Amino acid sequence: MKSVILIGKSGAGKTTLIQKLLNQPSENRKTQSLEFFSSMIDTPGEYLENKSYYKALLVSSIECDAILLLQDPCDEVCFYPPGFATMFNKHTIGVITKIDRYEGNIESAMKCLTSAGADRIFMISSYTEEGLYELKKYLEYL
């Protein structure tokens, strides 16, 4: 699997997605600092929510092959500024999480990730595992 960094607001599902992609047991917890796995970097949501941490995201992504931008469709706010992905100069993949939740707005999440600069967008549910296989295969052959 190619190396990726996961970026998203607190609660977007970054840690859960990593656990699912790496076949680890699910453990609900708050990521407090950068966490490095074999091929993935988990970032705290505050790194997106506070612009002063953008430099940390940029530096942490240097060795990565791709950027994963996660958006929960239940979030009414898009924290990614337009063109956000251009600061990385890497392949950027959008991931709409929690698609199994009926109160989500998929169209709004899609617009958010497209505006941020995602090249391709996947829709997944870590709960039902819908879309996980396709994302995993895509990351393997990126």
UniProtKB/TrEMBL annotation:
The keyword 4Fe-4S does not apply. Keywords: Nucleotide-binding. Belongs to the EutP/PduV family. This is EutP/PduV family microcompartment system protein. It comes from Lutispora saccharofermentans.
